[in-house]
Fold this protein.
Amino acid sequence: MRNVLIAGATQGTGRELAAAYLRDGANVVVTGREAKRAETVAAELTAEATAAVAGQPPAVTAGDDPPLPGVATGLALDLSRPDTVAAALAPVGQVDRLVLVGMVRDRNTLAGFDTAAASQLAVTKVVGYTAVIAALAERLAPGASVLLFGGGSKDYPYPGSTTLTAANAAVSGMVRTLSTELAPVRVNAIHPGPIGDSPFWHGKAELADTLAKFRAQTLTGELGDMADVVDACRFLLENRQANGIDLPLDGGHP
C-alpha cells in the first residue's frame, strides 16, 4: 500500500488528488495550516473513499475485487514558516508520493506594493516547498516521486502577478536541481492554468468576466477542471519515465 503526502490538500485540486489516491487504496497524509481543518478534511476524505469503494459494482472474479480504500490523516503544516516544517513532519513515516500544492494567492501591483504579502508567497513556494523535501528526503521510498505545483502565471503574467510569476518560474528551476540531487527519486512540476471548477471562483460573480477572458485566451476555448489536473498529476507521479518535466496544463495559447 502506498503512502502519499499532499501538502495543501484541504481544498481544491489537492483535495481531489487525495481522494483519488484514497480510492485506489493508498494511505494519504493531508496537510493544511490549521490542524483542526486538516483533521476534519481527512475524516471526510476517508468516509467518502469508503463509500465510493463500497458503491462499486461486484467484481466478476475474485481477482478483480476493488482495493480497500486507504485512510487519510490530517496534519498541520505551515509552508510560510519553513523553520517549523521539520518538526511538523516528524510523525510522518516512509513516503512513496510527495505532492506540494500549498500556495498563497497574491495580486500585488507595484502601486502600494505589499512586501509582507510578497515575502509570504515567495517563502511558501520556494523555501517552504524545499524545506518539506529536505525534511522527508531520507524517508522517500525506493521508486518514490515528487510533484511541485507552479502555475500558468509563470508564462502568462498579469498586472499584480510579479511575485507569483517569479515564484512559479522558480519552481521550474527547482525541478531541474532537485531531480538531479534526489536521483533516482523522480521530480516533476505542473503549471495549471485557471481551473474552471476551483472553489476559488465559487460565489464570486464579479470574477465571471475574468474567467471568460481566460477561457477566450486558450486554443481549446475551454478551461481545465480539477479532474483534468488530477489526471495529469497521476501521470507525472506514476509514470516511471516521467522525470524532470515542467508541464504546462492550460489548453495552449497562440
The chain has a mean pLDDT of 91. The helical segments are 12-23, 35-54, 85-88, 115-136, 162-181, 208-216, 226-238. The CA atoms of residues 110 and 125 lie 21 Å apart.
